[in-house]
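Notes, Module 5: Reading structure tokens.

Key idea: the token line is not a picture. It is a compressed description, and you learn to read it the same way you learned to read a sequence, by spotting repeated patterns. We will look at two proteins. The first is printed below with its tokens.
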Amino acid sequence: MGYEGRLTWGAAPAVFFDRDGVLIEATVRDGRPYPPRTADGVRPDPDAVDAVRALRAAGFALAVVTNQPDVARGTATEESVRAVNARAAELLGLAPDSFFTCLHDDSDGCSCRKPEPGLVVRAARHCGADLSRSFVIGDRWRDVGAAHRAGCAAVWIDRGYRERMPEPPYRRVPSLARAAAVVLGAHGGR
């Protein structure tokens, strides 16, 4: 559990989604996912709109926590990342201020780059969420690690990437639709 993950800022449960490969489609090259470069390239995951609606209707606060290290690497701009976030928010019916983005690379040593819990903790404060009743839905080991360190449950969408496996515990599912079903089932389907 993370240093701040034991704290709760309210009674609301939340779902913290990763962005690329979860809510919006990622381009997979050599077994690794890559984000869209422009807002025009944003394509929602086929299950995303229904998952967002179902989780919102069940009373979950919703936020997006996304690593975007290409800014630190010089291959993307902050403006392009903001534009992709805005387009995703528009297509999925999410509030633009519900996107929390880390623009750092591993060598920056920040507390917001997943698997560190900083983004999840910031999003929880923003939402008034109880981390112990919340979930992180992601498609990479870093998402599961951030869930653990923040004190949330983890749901891992296995997209078959060729990279490090997440550390347990987590629920492994094949799709965002199944991930939403797991979250809803864990909270009695309310």
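Here is the second protein, with the sequence above and the tokens below, as before.
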Amino acid sequence: MYKLIFLFLFVSSIINAQNKRFVYEYFLAKDSTHLEIKEKEFLNLDIGQQGSKFYAAEVLKLDSLIKNKETPMGDFPYQNINFLDVVIKNYPGFDINFYTNCLIDYKVSLQKKLDWKIFPEKKNILGYSAQKATTTLYKRKWTVWFTTDIPVQDGPYLLQGLPGLIIKAEDENKGISFSLIEIKSLPQFNINEIPYYFQSDLLSINENDLKKAIKNFYEKPSVQMNDEAHQDNGKKMTFYMEGKEVSSSEFYRIMEQNNKNALKKTNNLLKYDIIK
């Protein structure tokens, strides 16, 4: 076991001035008290010369429907996606733009220099010679397998900085994992193009501001609107809960309690690591 500190020149024979999409199978146990119950999604790591973009594969289909006006604009078509964050890493310095939602849509500037421990242990994954490494990110411990056969120092989520692509990653409690399953060529790659739901009313903040926002969300997970916002064409809005009319204060009190109960069952989400 030993620690590795290095400067790795970004020269990739697999990309070779081409754009690539690395598709990962993502398993998530939302509730840390029931790690045996996992949900599966597919996530894309798109890589080009400028950098990389990591996001849910299903977003591509939904954005296409919205652009073609096949999905009602008033609906929220992304509600069944677990990984709604977007991670953009800019090469060669790996400055990160992290897009997330916590009642408000945020663009967060991050710098993550991970302290890796590389082990001599190796195994074959998808025909690639992969080597073991570990790190800690926001107090969550990760074990990953990277391959120098694909010499890009990137990987899923915020994981990066090894002398090869991370093709498998799992947290210590085995509640979250990423596994590479497919590699595709991309005809084009625009690192600045983000999903539809992050394209308006986006607030740019730093990491400390995000920590405050997440803490506030945990303490009061609802949005309280002022009297003007409660007007519909000049008329006072009416609120209903379970078929009964309630006051606006009661409506938000119940909504807040429902959100708090939901948070208890989704306490293993990656973005909540930021305040642990």
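Summary for the second protein:
- The CA atoms of residues 9 and 92 lie 8 Å apart.
- Residues 206-275 form one domain.
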